[in-house]
């Protein structure tokens, strides 16, 4: 008996070894057939799981300097390098050609679902972020028209929230941390656009307990989701987070309550022979995502909930943190603020701030782009290779030979580092200089909303909101001054990046 067991044990080891060798030979032969070289490799102290680099990343994240670590790695190894992440091949690249190849040329060979579905699925469900293939396609087809209608017609909705935001800012030059306020402004407006209900964070007297609770629960949900991303393959060691799963169920239940209300409303208006769009609503938003989705799928509550969760996740902090970063940078650059004021002062009083008009404000647009270049709220995207693929660079001694990726390999596209690359932007790459963006012709070297088919569907909406915000700020305030002793930007990551020290400024009307 013991003998049989030993023979079985030995055979399984030998078979595994043969399998391992055979896959190595296959990879080697595919690589040499395609003229690929060995990748430029990070020198791991732990060559099996790569925990040494993970530990370093956690240390730098805690210090608010993760992007600085990425920059150090690229400075040492070149613009594409191979690392290990939980034992998996994990490539990092800041090369525009590599990013373009993954996001556009060979987009069908890369997916988001393998890296997002497991950590984010229990909270977000199947939607634009967490799926690939036909479910992702359906999701984009559902969302695109709503985003397109909204670009041109939603500014009156934003203005309502902006008025409340402006009321909260002292006008006498006293110090204020404006970051929580801009985040509150865009939390309120995005909740209203997505669910038809504002969180009311800027107007506590109108805030419903339910909406406040929903946004707090969602924040808690995001913290649990981030933990899942960090523990990745060893999440089984930590075990399923029952508390977090209960939190997800609570968030879903609240959202389903919103969906039920809308389904009821649409049913009633149908019975009365009334179009739902003619019903008077307290919201200034003409197109509410929840309403549009219920019109299309009145019987599929789970689908609607998942789509809404995915969009809310994307909208939750993005515009709020970019607008506060904009003020962070402008408060440290009085001459740029003056240029914004000059452009805004030239707007005729009768001119309506429409989507089309805001696009013509060259300096305002350049300030937005320069902010996104320097302080991006996400600054990277992860893709997983779905079928064997050759990428044009990253191999050989020079890093200029093609490399071969296998299904399961991950690649991290670091827009944040590409956007600060001195070879692209010059020696002053890390300085805030919006003039450079006035002259810049858009290309794969600058993709704050990603590129290819997974480009952010809300790109134009976000530009419009940010331009509107900046114009209104410049109309309202004469000066903006930095009131933080720390001049540099210290990162704080939850799922998006914000300023750890807040954005302490003084605004004045005199
Ligand atoms: C300044 C603000 C924003 C920036 C910089 C931004 C940037 C991005 C980027 C870089 C991606 C690609 C992520 C990836 O490849 O994994 C993305 C995807 C996405 N964004 Fe945005 N975004 C912003 C605002 C918004 C807003 C306000 C919404 C919704 C109202 C939104 C909805 C989405 C969705 C649904 C996706 C997933 C697209 C897909 O995978 O097909 N974004 N965004």
Layout: helices, strands, pairs:
Blueprint: H1 2-33, H2 51-62, H3 66-77, E1 80-85, E2 88-93, H4 96-105, E3 110-111, H5 113-124, H6 133-153, H7 155-167, E4 172-177, H8 179-195, H9 209-231, H10 235-238, H11 242-271, H12 289-296, H13 301-315, H14 318-331, H15 334-345, H16 355-359, H17 362-374, E5 381-385, E6 389-395, E7 401-405, E8 410-413, H18 415-418, H19 422-425, H20 435-439, H21 459-476, E9 479-482, E10 491-493, E11 497-499, E12 504-508
Parallel strand pairs: 2-8
Antiparallel strand pairs: 1-2, 3-5, 4-12, 5-8, 6-7, 9-12, 10-11
Helix pairs in contact: 2-3, 5-9, 7-8, 7-21, 8-13, 8-14, 9-11, 11-12, 11-13, 14-17, 15-17, 15-21
The protein binds protoporphyrin IX containing FE.
